[in-house]
Design brief:
The complex is a heterodimer of chains A (about 250) and B (about 325).
Chain A lengths: L1 E6 L1 E3 L21 E3 L1 H17 L3 E8 L4 H10 L3 E6 L6 H12 L6 E5 L10 H9 L3 E5 L1 E5 L2 E8 L2 E8 L2 E5 L11 H7 L4 E5 L7 E7 L8 E3 L3 H13 L5
Parallel strand pairs in A: 1-4, 1-6, 4-5, 5-12, 6-11, 7-11
Antiparallel strand pairs in A: 2-3, 8-9, 9-10
Helix pairs in contact in A: 2-5, 3-4
Chain B lengths: L3 E4 L2 E4 L2 E4 L2 H16 L3 E6 L5 H6 L4 E5 L9 H15 L3 E5 L2 H14 L2 E6 L1 E5 L2 E8 L4 E7 L3 E5 L14 E4 L9 E7 L13 E5 L10 H10 L2 E4 L1 H5 L20 E5 L5 H7 L4 E6 L6 H4 L2 E4 L2 H17 L1
Parallel strand pairs in B: 1-4, 1-6, 4-5, 5-12, 6-11, 7-11, 14-15, 14-16, 16-17, 17-18
Antiparallel strand pairs in B: 2-3, 8-9, 9-10
Helix pairs in contact in B: 3-4, 5-9
The chains are: A alpha/beta (about 250), B alpha/beta (about 325).
Chain lengths: ~250, ~325
């Protein structure tokens, strides 16, 4: 079972966003970076599948800046076998990211590609299905459960409050929703071992994306708060305001 | 290429098929974009549903209907084939659909297969000359990007972001014959959830609880207020991580991003990841005993008090207020 996991280096979810001088991106000064949380879940699941099968390999791949070596090493420390880094300092949109991933993978053989459902910077939830389309593979996004059998996988996902159980032919591209696996913290042994694992760097094949960011702005500030007393009269005041002023009841 | 194509999800139930709630919003946004570009608005629908009346009301000029059992339930390969057939027929400047789980998957998959520019999870869409331009939240809503498509595009629209408006006309219907592709993804089973509530991202009102509720046994207070307000109910990450509530109810950066008309945060302190998931709500009411809680910084109405006192009081008041 050869599994490829696509990960992305993103700003920490704790980050307070400031707009950069170009007005099109965020100010990265003093910002901490992490592996996108759903991507970590995908890495963990891949390691578990390999270990349950007792054979196979987990390859982590990223398209990102030279500094993303840190996130690849973290995945190796968790237990992935090898890493592939398509290096670009450009911030790519979803179409261009998927194209660069596909180019980096080249003609590698695999049984399964796992991605996080979305990276927590762009929040597009698009690279997995875009990559599946590019590779001509089937796709199921937002899966919270995955088991692998001969030639196919059984996955579960939540749609409109119902759980769909789907069977998908392999190879396929699946994207991880919370619940798929709880990422482990890499131990010291893993961190030491990761230093010796293969990490291949290649220049990313960057194509002109068909979208351009014209501006990035902070969301509009919210109006000042009205304090409501925690009393029955206060509740009436609140309900009346919600109906008559805000027209939401 | 000035026409706009919209793809509308349908829900299958024992009563037959019906359009899902965001359909009218997608049609409204599509109508405005078609008018801006000087084109027609065409809708594609799949499976056994005949909603011409609804669609005409929201500005659709023509409905393309893809029939057949393979298209009834949403399975990606078949839906992609249906949408691509409609795109080949209409040659639209842009394709609009709802940014639901299925809509995000379908839009990216079809964008990849047809080489179209993708703008995912937009909160508004318009035209600058002949170019389609959309606003979309990034960093879980901590920033808003203006994104232009330099090629024909596919745009998924966040539910609840564009209010549905009427623009009635007579919508013609045409059947589009599409051969179902081999299903590489097959449905084995659908397990209904134990409790049914409206999908959080589509709800008009959400009542959410945090760790301040105290425990799973006290959740009745959240459910009681939600019921009194006719609301869906959500939870903070702390509550989901503690196992009090399922992940499907989680609002925030690793849960759902919601923009209801009214969001009532109860016993939620307002971690930055939670605020990211709900601060685009139109009106926010917060109940918390800590007057310094960050949730009050985004709230329109704040009640400083114990949730165990305030929630029953508010539930009772809401019950009689809305009945009267």
């Amino acid at each position: 079972m050869k599994i490829i996991v696509c990960i992305k280096r993103v700003v920490d979810t704790e980050t307070r966003v400031k707009i950069g001088a170009d007005g099109k991106s965020i100010d990265l000064g003093g910002v901490q970076f992490i592996t996108a949380p759903y991507d970590e879940m995908a890495v963990e699941k891949a390691i578990q599948l390999r270990d349950e099968a007792g054979e196979g390999s987990v390859t982590v791949v990223t398209v990102g800046p030279a500094a993303a070596t840190k996130e690849l090493r973290t995945a190796l420390a968790m237990g992935a076998d090898e890493a592939l880094h398509a290096v670009t300092e450009e911030h790519l949109g979803p179409n261009a990211t998927a194209a660069a991933l596909q180019a980096a993978l080249g003609d590698r053989a695999f049984d399964l590609i796992l991605c996080g459902k979305q990276a927590t910077d762009e929040d597009d939830a698009a690279v997995g299905p875009l990559l599946a389309a590019g590779l001509g593979l089937p796709c199921v996004a937002f899966v919270h459960s995955l088991t692998v059998a001969a030639g196919h996988a059984i996955v579960e996902r939540e749609i409109d409050g119902e759980t769909e159980i789907l069977e998908v032919d392999l190879p396929a591209v699946l994207t991880a929703q919370k619940g798929l696996a709880e990422p482990r913290y890499p131990g010291l042994k893993g961190i030491m071992a990761a230093k010796k694992k293969p990490l291949e760097s290649v220049p990313a094949e960057v194509t002109d994306g068909p979208t351009e960011v014209r501006a990035l702005e902070l969301p509009p500030a919210r109006s000042a708060m009205v304090t409501i007393e925690p009393t029955p009269a206060g509740m009436q005041t609140l309900l009346t305001a919600l109906r008559q002023e805000k027209k939401v009841l | 290429m000035a026409d706009i194509l919209i793809y509308l999800e349908t829900a299958q139930s024992s009563d037959g098929a019906a359009l899902k709630k965001p359909a009218a919003e997608v049609a409204t946004a599509g109508r405005a974009l078609a008018d801006a570009l000087g084109g027609r608005l065409v809708a594609v629908i799949t499976g056994s549903v005949a909603p011409e009346g609804v669609l005409g009301r929201h500005g659709v000029d023509e409905v393309l209907h893809v029939e057949g059992d393979a298209f009834g339930r949403h399975l990606l390969d078949a839906q992609a084939a249906a949408l691509e057939a409609a795109m080949a027929d209409v040659e639209p400047a842009s394709v609009l659909l709802a940014a639901t789980v299925l809509g995000k998957e379908l839009s990216a998959f079809v964008a990849g297969r047809t080489g179209r520019a993708l703008i995912s999870d937009a909160t508004s869409v318009g035209a600058d000359g002949t170019q389609v331009v959309a606003s979309k939240p990034k960093y879980a809503g901590k920033a808003m990007a203006q994104i232009a498509a330099t090629r024909p595009s596919i745009v998924s629209l966040r539910p609840n972001a564009v209010p549905a408006a009427e623009n009635p006309r007579e919508a013609a219907t045409r059947t589009l014959a599409v051969e179902a592709p081999a299903a590489r993804v097959r449905l084995r089973e659908v397990v209904p959830s134990a409790e049914t509530q409206l999908e959080l991202t589509e709800a008009d009102i959400i009542v959410s609880g945090g760790r301040g509720i105290g425990g799973p046994d006290a959740w009745d207070e959240i459910l009681g207020l939600a019921s009194a307000l006719g609301a869906a109910h959500g939870a903070s990450r702390a509550v989901v991580d503690a196992g009090w509530r399922p992940h499907a109810e989680q609002v925030g950066q690793t849960g759902k991003t919601v923009s209801p008309k009214l969001y009532v945060a109860c016993g939620i302190s307002g971690a930055i990841q939670h605020l990211a998931g709900m601060s685009s709500s139109k009106v926010i009411v917060a109940v918390n005993k800590d007057p310094e809680a960050p949730i009050f910084k985004v709230a329109d109405y704040g009640i400083v008090g114990d949730v165990h006192d305030v929630l029953p009081m508010l539930s009772e008041a809401a019950g009689s207020f809305l009945a009267g």
